[in-house]
């Protein structure tokens, strides 16, 4: 039985880590924006690991590594606290240059706003474009063939 401390951790399975993961997360993702960040959301109904987070903060956003790490730390902690309430899928936060001047509460509020909007997005469409046809039972065609062979 997991302890309450385990529920608060941020395991590797909850992170978007490799280039292939990022590429997959961006392909076909919905993008949401605020002045501080862009959030790419790709729902995955089959994900066993739940919601996963990836963060990208480039040197163009803040030339100082301390500033880039502060942005990532605030967003990682915010996501960790909200993860259980989010639909399964990949969430990739990309910082915009304005994020470097924002204080921690503003960074947190921007991510929370986009996560709330992402949770309201419609679920991905089911596989296929047409619903199954239930109007004509398949047994009626076999009955016709059977009746024709009996009368002949």
Automatic annotation (TrEMBL):
NCBIfam families: rnpA. Pfam families: Ribonuclease_P (PF00825). InterPro entries: Ribosomal_Su5_D2-typ_SF, Ribsml_uS5_D2-typ_fold_subgr, RNase_P. Residues 124-152 are annotated as: Disordered. Keywords: Endonuclease, Hydrolase, Nuclease, RNA-binding, tRNA processing. HAMAP family: RNase_P. The gene is rnpA. This is Ribonuclease P protein component. One of its GO terms (molecular function) is 3'-tRNA processing endoribonuclease activity. Consists of a catalytic RNA component (M1 or rnpB) and a protein subunit. One of its GO terms (biological process) is tRNA 5'-leader removal. Its EC number is 3.1.26.5. It catalyses: Endonucleolytic cleavage of RNA, removing 5'-extranucleotides from tRNA precursor. Signal peptide: none annotated. GO terms for cellular component: ribonuclease P complex. Belongs to the RnpA family. RNaseP catalyzes the removal of the 5'-leader sequence from pre-tRNA to produce the mature 5'-terminus. It can also cleave other RNA substrates such as 4.5S RNA. The protein component plays an auxiliary but essential role in vivo by binding to the 5'-leader sequence and broadening the substrate specificity of the ribozyme.
